[in-house]
Amino acid sequence: MDARIQDLLDREEIRQLITTYCQAADRHDHEKMRTLYHADAIDDHGAMFCGPAMEFIDKLPEIQAPMEILHHNVTTINLAIDGDYAEGEVYLLALHRAKTPDGPMDVLVGGRYFDKYARREGRWKFLHRVIVADWANIHSPSIIDLEHPFLEGAKIGRPGPADPSYGFFRLIRRGA
């Protein structure tokens, strides 16, 4: 195969990995999240967690319990590929609305993922993922208003299997 075509295929598979991570995180789909990391992968979310990715995923139900909204958006994706190894600097905007004793708060983080990927058995997965915060915008109490008349009749996204996407899509499924 032409090396340029293989490079395009590799880049697209890695981009799909990155965006699937966002979907799995936002929908609290831990089964899907497990399929994205190699068994020996490391995840570094700072003080929240740093260690084996599978242990991070085991802790996600507890970490995500106060999260009423998670909304990860990736923007600039810079990739470098060398055979079965690749690195990526991935810019992101991540909105979190979390329950606190004083009511919900919003945290909008602008940052980057520093990623290392490996292709094993023909499939690209995360080998090491580090979150880097470049800025944050905090609102306590929350300024999100999902009950505003402007949204009347709109489907409202939710973490977990109650999200309207699971009733809409046939091909994009939970855990797959």
Outline the fold blueprint.
Layout: H1 3-26, H2 30-34, E1 37-44, E2 50-52, H3 53-64, E3 67-82, E4 85-98, E5 105-120, E6 123-139, H4 165-168
Parallel strand pairs: 1-6
Antiparallel strand pairs: 1-2, 3-4, 4-5, 5-6
Provide a concise account of the structure shown.
This protein has about 180 residues and is α+β, with helices and mostly antiparallel strands. Helices cover about 25% and strands about 40% of the residues.
Give an overview in words.
With 176 residues, the chain is of the alpha+beta class. It has one domain (3-148): Roll (Nuclear Transport Factor 2, Chain: A), CATH 3.10.450. 26% of the residues lie in helices and 42% in strands. The protein has a six-stranded mixed beta sheet with strand order 2-1-6-5-4-3. The radius of gyration is 17 Å and the shape is globular. The protein starts with a helix and ends in an 8-residue tail after the last helix. The mean pLDDT is 95.
Class based on secondary structure composition and strand pairing: alpha+beta
Strand arrangement within the widest β-sheet reads: 2-1-6-5-4-3
Q: Main sheet? A: 6 strands, mixed
The CATH class is Alpha Beta
| Arithmetic mean of pLDDT | 95
Number of domains: 1
What's the number of helices?
4
CATH topology descriptor: Nuclear Transport Factor 2, Chain: A
CATH architecture: Roll
What's the total count of β strands? 6
Q: What fraction of residues sit in β-strands?
A: 35-45%
Radius of gyration: 17 Å
Describe the global form. globular
Proportion of residues in helical segments: 25-40%
Which residues form runs of ≥5 with pLDDT under 50?
none
Organism: Edaphosphingomonas fennica
Domain SnoaL-like: 6-129
Protein name: Nuclear transport factor 2 family protein
Pfam family, one: SnoaL_4
